[in-house]
């Protein structure tokens, strides 16, 4: 049994899930179209953002690429600590699997929240990672379609850093993948153009206003709220931000991220002087080139 069989097993199981979730796309389209009309955060025109639509069209191909690459990277890194690739590797192994199933699930959810929190926070604090993550933050108009706007390298980094600790500890990655529909729906809801704070549950669930604060410029309180599903780790690490007033302007401070998808793919590989016109550079000396917190 080689590394390619183990990669195939992982990508195959994900692909079945991806195809099943694509069947839900028309329902999601209808659901968000209705709720964003009923309670919008800001009134937006009927035309969707062309860049966001292109990301959705490219998404299945990009997912296939990043899943394959992340499985390869995970197996290669795991081999360094003695975890060998075999077909059943994604079903878990070692002492972790001797625990009751419910406990494994609880530990996986908590661990995934923790790794997702720190991988996202690193994307904001490590300069070269921020160059990739800035693509996601380049959306100046936020709605559920914005959730797919990610550079493939950002996706690859997030997947590997989220999953690798679970994988090396022996958690069943295939079971973690079954959480994908919930995680995906939570991400779509978080980006929705909805004036929704969840009332007394706003400290427990990531929602549209909570994540909108994350997308604001640093001077508007942005660069907080890194959680993906439950803000628990924002509380613990001091980045929870949910004031009574509304979130302000969205976007990226002092950087000129292009609108075109292909140019966005190339953007992180360009030098900083190349990617900012002269007057932007002048402005960037007064403003931080990335959000500070
Ligand atoms: Zn972010
Ligand atoms: Zn976002």
Commentary on this structure:
- The protein has 293 residues and is mainly alpha-helical.
- It has one domain (3-286).
- Helix content is 57%, strand content 0%.
- The chain has 13 helices and no strands.
- The chain has helices at residues 3-22, 25-38, 50-80, 101-125, 127-137, 152-169, 173-177, 180-191, 208-214, 232-236, 261-266, 272-275, 278-286.
- The radius of gyration is 19 Å and the shape is globular.
- Residues 276-293 have low confidence and may be disordered.
- The structure holds zinc ion (2 copies).
- One zinc ion binds at residues 120, 123-124, 133, 137, 214.
* Small molecules (ligands, ions, cofactors) in the structure: zinc ion
**How far from one another are the termini?**
47 Å
Strand content: under 5%
Total helical segments? 13
**Total count of strands:** 0
Helix content percent band: 55-70%
Largest sheet: none
Count of discrete structural domains: 1
Q: Which spans of ≥5 residues are poorly predicted at pLDDT below 50?
A: 276-293
Structural class: mainly alpha
Report the average pLDDT across residues: 84
Quick one: overall form? globular
Order of helices and strands: HHHHHHHHHHHHH
Radius of gyration: 19 Å
